[in-house]
């Protein structure tokens, strides 16, 4: 907006403050990550070194949402359904419906003010809110049938998500907690899932999990999903990605989660040297193999792990602020590609200077 708004263009002045947002939405609708990555790799390959080595790992690019709790999610759903009912009654010129909304609001705010929230208080309030949410949904449906009006597309989608939240929260309270699949954690971003990472600082992250392949210092998306997945199962696909774009893969660096027996056999069948801790006797060239594994592990720990922090700290991927799933994926992709472009541009300039010098 700062670059383009106010600029004179053919005697006309650009005033649209949503210009960048419109571009992002347009690009997100037409983005083909696989095709575009292939084009970029073909263009950058002459300036890439050590393309026989591949490194891989996964990270989560978190969405910009507040930390979700069941109570917050239920209350947000109640507010949206209540506002929808009151808005429709106003359009139909009906009086404001009698409701216990303000009573439940007082209970919710009183609970939120408590610094220490016991499990008993939490469960009691969730039961109350769940029951009230069901009453509101039934009231909206009854109003819709009686006065024969239609909800807008946006309202229908929102109510559909709220009904899913109600059924999931009911299952969590009265059913088997482990069987709740595709659990919604954000009303406005229903595509976001809880990704259990097991880290000491952040045991759970909320956003897109991306499996990256790094070749020659440049990172590429091999797999992106909002559902949790085991990155150790993506080794074969990552090697296939490398072979498609860079030719034979001779060396591979990955952490211990990839070192399954199946992956070891696969790498041995393709004569790929890995950074995995070996099993059994090493035979000939034991010291050389140990040195190579140490170098691969060190490079992976510094270059690949460092790229995660670099992208999150300097390329707006720490908290992705896009509103929809499509624009969020585009945001992540172009953040990574911009980081690659900053690296490859220096190599191109250096190559040109060597030629002229």
Task: Please give a structural write-up.
- With 357 residues, the chain is an alpha/beta fold.
- It has 3 domains: 30 residues, no CATH class; 185 residues, Ribonuclease H-like superfamily/Ribonuclease H (Nucleotidyltransferase, domain 5), CATH 3.30.420.10; 110 residues, no CATH class.
- 54% of the residues lie in helices and 12% in strands.
- Strands 3, 4, 5, 6, 7 and 8 form a 6-stranded mixed β-sheet that branches. Strands 1-2 form a two-stranded antiparallel ribbon.
Please outline the helices and strands.
Elements: E1 8-9, E2 12-13, H1 19-30, H2 33-44, E3 53-62, H3 70-91, H4 101-113, H5 119-147, H6 153-174, E4 194-196, E5 204-215, E6 218-225, H7 235-246, E7 251-253, H8 261-269, E8 273-274, H9 286-314, H10 325-356
Parallel strand pairs: 3-7, 7-8
Antiparallel strand pairs: 1-2, 3-5, 4-5, 5-6
